[in-house]
Amino acid sequence: MFESLSDRLSGVFDRLTKQGALSEDDVKTALREVRIALLEADVSLPVARDLIKAVQEKASGQSVTKSVTPGQQVVKIVHDELVHVLQGDGDPGALKIDNPPAPILMVGLQGSGKTTTTAKLAKRLKDREGKKVLMASLDVNRPAAMEQLQILGAQIGVDTLPIVKGEDPVQIAKRAKTAAAMGGYDVYILDTAGRLHIDAELIAQAAAVRDVAQPRETLLVVDGLTGQDAVNVATEFDDKIGVTGVVLTRMDGDGRGGAALSMRAVTGKPIRFVGLGEKLDAIEEFHAERVAGRILG
Ligand code: GDP
């Protein structure tokens, strides 16, 4: 995660910290390089610009250049600003899944990793929080998607709603709700159908399911490798359906990391989890401090 951005930044900061005394111009030059590194990592332009501006304001004046370790001071300021960009107004806290059975709605484009993430999340809730979880696939367009979820459920020891042919997504959601209540489940996760692009039908279907299920959390799964596109997809889903959080998948790849950095600032929605591989335990909670630390190496 963030290897190339992290390499670039550590190059800049190594030079800065080794330099000893720093002039305002040295700091400016370094921040110009940081800005380029952020843009190359596909961070959106306004986000990169605001971040650099905030760092510049905090680093200017006497305190940094006159301090004993000016380079480290700059790094600390960049770190704090990264945390700020990554978590916005604050940590979103735990998922709102009290009051069983709590519905979680999973939305996203086809191929984003939605079904895999549904299983990863279910496994995590079961293993770490001892929750009794039910998963249901609402993907009536692709019968293979329903079977995929069933197979994943068997692998992780989580129940899936029995498949009934001929139902529409709203009917499946209603059946999942009843089954979750009758079966004493703590949480039920609805895996909606994805499409290659956001279109009217996808939105109408997700909205109809949302209205029936009244989800406590609506998690959007987006491919972290797609950079600014991931952020655009999130903005559109949030406008049309309303999401409470984002899961960024494929963060194990050599993606440039821009999606992670722009997501909160552009959409206002917290990143809840990151997917770090195909295995069903390859998911991590998103912590701004930890991620900022990784970016700075
Ligand atoms: P869906 O169409 O959105 O439901 O996507 P799937 O869950 O079927 O995932 C599509 C492919 O992406 C599968 O081969 C998954 O194993 C893979 N995948 C999902 N999440 C991750 C991730 O975090 N990292 C990697 N490397 N692969 C992932």
From TrEMBL:
<keyword id="KW-0733">Signal recognition particle</keyword>
<dbReference type="GO" id="GO:0048500">
    <property type="term" value="C:signal recognition particle"/>
</dbReference>
<dbReference type="GO" id="GO:0008312">
    <property type="term" value="F:7S RNA binding"/>
</dbReference>
<protein>
    <recommendedName>
        <fullName>Signal recognition particle protein</fullName>
        <ecNumber>3.6.5.4</ecNumber>
    </recommendedName>
</protein>
<comment type="subunit">
    <text>Part of the signal recognition particle protein translocation system, which is composed of SRP and FtsY. SRP is a ribonucleoprotein composed of Ffh and a 4.5S RNA molecule.</text>
</comment>
<keyword id="KW-0378">Hydrolase</keyword>
<keyword id="KW-0963">Cytoplasm</keyword>
<comment type="function">
    <text>Involved in targeting and insertion of nascent membrane proteins into the cytoplasmic membrane. Binds to the hydrophobic signal sequence of the ribosome-nascent chain (RNC) as it emerges from the ribosomes. The SRP-RNC complex is then targeted to the cytoplasmic membrane where it interacts with the SRP receptor FtsY. Interaction with FtsY leads to the transfer of the RNC complex to the Sec translocase for insertion into the membrane, the hydrolysis of GTP by both Ffh and FtsY, and the dissociation of the SRP-FtsY complex into the individual components.</text>
</comment>
<feature type="binding site">
    <location>
        <begin position="249"/>
        <end position="252"/>
    </location>
    <ligand>
        <name>GTP</name>
    </ligand>
</feature>
<comment type="similarity">
    <text>Belongs to the GTP-binding SRP family. SRP54 subfamily.</text>
</comment>
<keyword id="KW-0547">Nucleotide-binding</keyword>
<feature type="binding site">
    <location>
        <begin position="191"/>
        <end position="195"/>
    </location>
    <ligand>
        <name>GTP</name>
    </ligand>
</feature>
<feature type="domain" description="SRP54-type proteins GTP-binding">
    <location>
        <begin position="270"/>
        <end position="283"/>
    </location>
</feature>
<keyword id="KW-0342">GTP-binding</keyword>
<feature type="binding site">
    <location>
        <begin position="108"/>
        <end position="115"/>
    </location>
    <ligand>
        <name>GTP</name>
    </ligand>
</feature>
<dbReference type="GO" id="GO:0005525">
    <property type="term" value="F:GTP binding"/>
</dbReference>
<dbReference type="GO" id="GO:0006614">
    <property type="term" value="P:SRP-dependent cotranslational protein targeting to membrane"/>
</dbReference>
<dbReference type="GO" id="GO:0003924">
    <property type="term" value="F:GTPase activity"/>
</dbReference>
<keyword id="KW-0687">Ribonucleoprotein</keyword>
<dbReference type="GO" id="GO:0005886">
    <property type="term" value="C:plasma membrane"/>
</dbReference>
<keyword id="KW-0694">RNA-binding</keyword>
